[in-house]
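Quick one: structure for this chain?
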Amino acid sequence: VLRKTSPGWYQRRVRVRQKAVLRNEELATENLSLKPELESKQEELIELYAELERQKGELSDLQAQQQALSDHYAPHNILARLKIAASEVEDEAETISENFLSGEMTIEEFLKTFIPKKTLCHSRRAKEEKMEQMGI
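Got it. Here's what it folds into:
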């Protein structure tokens, strides 16, 4: 161990300092040489993050679309729409019947329009009952 008063202490201290300065310069040079790669990686990260955000938005849109379709085709919604459709066709058949009874249409016109409407109405009512029996 060298003491401040020992010969060579100062020279040793200067050499240690010079080595530290040289090492520091080497590290600085090395760091500067890595700067372009670092900047490139930062740009790549920014682009990947933007792509991630875009895909997250797309996923969110697809999830909303899937939920809307799921709601639309839920059994209880199908049953509700089936009841409405059956009721609408039944009303149309009733209107056709009233028009026939009031003389606004011939028997041929009546049969051509009334029978398909009533058939459709009965078909929808049967499906409605079947769904209700299934517990929907």
